[in-house]
């Protein structure tokens, strides 16, 4: 793109729009190559083509740097930016199977600073960083403008180490606003364009309160679980004392193993059937042979013999 609507004024260093300069303006420069930009804006009222800037020589500059610089300029001058909504799932503790979790929501709002500085140098974890804009006031806010290059992970780590608010403002979709003028472009950059959090400071009061509440909830749950476990152990010990004989017999049966246990249960059933046979014979004189006869080694009625006998001999 060789023709565009922005230029950098060589005297003030400000980015100017083609609609805001006088005819014959010669003070424009390109931010990328620093070559002069010629203003094609004579005879505004009778021109058939829109006004624009063009390089004085052939150039491959895209004008992206001018758009980036203008975004930084309007943010610094207005000292105001709309922060996006922040959402994060908080879990306490961070590791372990037993935890409490909750979604923390930090609502969008307009951040207004007392002062704003462009490209203020920082020393973070033995690295030099120059945020696009540093907002200063009750809190510090770093803003990175994303036009062609997003914020990379190592840079994000630096902002996390600083533990201050940092957002990335994306200028995507700026064209129609820029064509309308700098004021419309400024409104778009400050409040309407896409933006995302790079880091929300852990010192944020709302986050501190939410984290403390979740921690207290987790501690309370652990205390209740411990108390419940203590009560269960007390009841268990009381039950063991009350039913000690049954528990000992059960433990003895479990120690036998499955084969011995089956044998003992079978012996118990045979003993019970013999006792029932004796009672029936004593009461009725005999047990009818046709009741629930065995067919191919199985009971005809698919049930225990003594139940049919009992039911038929009243």
Descriptive overview:
This protein is α+β, with helices and mostly antiparallel strands and 314 residues long. It is built from 8 helices and 19 strands. It has helices spanning 64-78, 153-162, 175-180, 182-192, 205-242, 244-256, 258-284, 305-312, and strands spanning 3-4, 6-9, 15-17, 28-29, 36-40, 52-55, 80-83, 86-92, 100-106, 109-112, 115-118, 122-124, 127-129, 133-136, 141-146, 165-170, 195-199, 294-295, 298-299. The strands form 6 sheets. The chain has a 6-stranded antiparallel beta sheet with strand order 1-6-5-4-2-3, covered by helices on one side. β14 (133-136) and β15 (141-146) form a beta hairpin. It starts with a strand and ends with a helix.
Count up the helices.
Answer: 8
Helix content: 40-55%
Strand order of the largest sheet: 1-6-5-4-2-3
- Which spans of ≥5 residues are poorly predicted at pLDDT below 50? 288-296, 298-314
Give the overall shape, derived from the CA principal axes: rod-shaped
* Class from helix and strand fractions: alpha+beta
Count of DSSP strands: 19
Distance between the termini: 109 Å
Largest sheet: 6 strands, antiparallel
What's the gyration radius in Å?
42 Å
Mean pLDDT: 81
**Order of helical and strand elements:** EEEEEEHEEEEEEEEEHEHHEHHHEEH
Query: How would you classify the quaternary structure?
Result: single chain
Strand content: 15-25%
Observed structural traits:
314 residues; alpha+beta; 6-stranded antiparallel beta sheet; 5-stranded mixed beta sheet
């Amino acid at each position: 793109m060789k023709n565009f609507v922005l230029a950098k004024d060589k005297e003030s260093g400000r980015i100017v729009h083609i609609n805001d300069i006088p005819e014959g303006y010669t003070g424009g420069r390109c931010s990328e190559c620093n070559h002069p930009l010629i203003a094609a804006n004579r005879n505004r009222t009778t021109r058939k083509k829109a006004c624009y800037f063009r390089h004085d020589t052939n150039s491959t500059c895209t004008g992206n740097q001018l758009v980036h610089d203008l975004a930084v300029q309007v943010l610094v001058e207005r000292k105001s930016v709309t922060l996006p909504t922040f959402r994060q799932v908080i879990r306490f503790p961070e590791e372990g199977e037993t935890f409490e979790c909750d979604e923390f929501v930090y609502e969008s709002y307009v951040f207004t600073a007392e002062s704003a500085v462009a490209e203020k140098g920082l020393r973070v974890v033995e690295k030099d960083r120059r945020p696009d804009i540093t907002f200063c006031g009750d809190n510090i806010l770093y803003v990175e403008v994303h036009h062609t290059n997003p914020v990379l992970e190592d840079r994000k780590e630096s902002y996390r180490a600083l533990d201050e608010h940092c957002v990335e403002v994306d200028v995507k979709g700026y064209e129609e606003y820029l064509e309308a003028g700098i004021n419309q472009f400024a409104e778009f950059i400050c409040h309407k364009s896409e933006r995302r959090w790079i880091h929300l400071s852990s010192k944020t009061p709302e986050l501190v309160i939410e984290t403390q509440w979740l921690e207290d909830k987790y501690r309370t749950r652990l205390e209740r679980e411990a108390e419940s476990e203590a009560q269960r152990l007390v009841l268990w010990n009381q039950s063991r004392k009350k039913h000690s004989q049954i528990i000992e017999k059960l433990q003895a049966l479990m120690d036998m193993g499955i084969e011995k246990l089956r044998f003992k249960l079978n012996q118990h059933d045979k003993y019970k059937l013999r006792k029932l046979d004796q009672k029936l014979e004593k009461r009725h004189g005999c047990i009818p042979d046709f009741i629930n006869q065995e067919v191919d080694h199985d009971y005809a009625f698919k049930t225990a013999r003594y139940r049919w006998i009992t039911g038929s001999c009243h």
